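Hey, does this match?
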Amino acid sequence: MTQNQKTCIIIFAKFPAQGMAKTRLQPALGIDGAARMARQLLLHSIEQAVATGFSIELCVSPAPSDPCWQTLGLPDSLRWSEQADGDLGLRMFTASQQALARFKQVILIGTDCPSLSSIIIQRAAQRLDTQDSVMIPAFDGGYVLFGFKQVAARLFNDIQWSTPSVAKITQQRLVELSWSIALLAPLPDIDEPEDLQYLPEGWLDG
């Protein structure tokens, strides 16, 4: 089985709705600009994931059947699923469990990191050949990628999401589970106005 056949990337995404997407960027970009940035980040993340050649699942809110998703012109190759109820941890755990019934390994990513390229994702997937898990921490203390070949609820329960301790707590729990982990170089999420300095060149033009 090739890497492409055994790996599923799950992208957690919300529709980039005006006034509801990237609200913390509104002071710098305005309501329209924040929504446009959310859309650009989403499309870029999908493009990079598809370029890996792996199977891609878009785990979304609202549900895939909502007409809003038809407006984005996304690739036909995507698998779609609806985010489960509960906090982010429960949603990630549920999606991971379901994907591991079909694939040997799962890589979770969001849509906030334009620096997360297809090559970096492929590199992370390769680390799972010799490690139980792989993580790319975010500058803000979260993580932009988390991959594994098995999943445990402990990795997602009782975590204060969107806080600086997320990656560290998750790493501690991996140690408690006696899972090996490959840590790759941290990358920036685009959440706050001060993060805009990390955008690729040209993203703020127009």
Summary: The radius of gyration is 16 Å. The chain has a mean pLDDT of 96. DSSP finds five helices and seven strands in the chain.
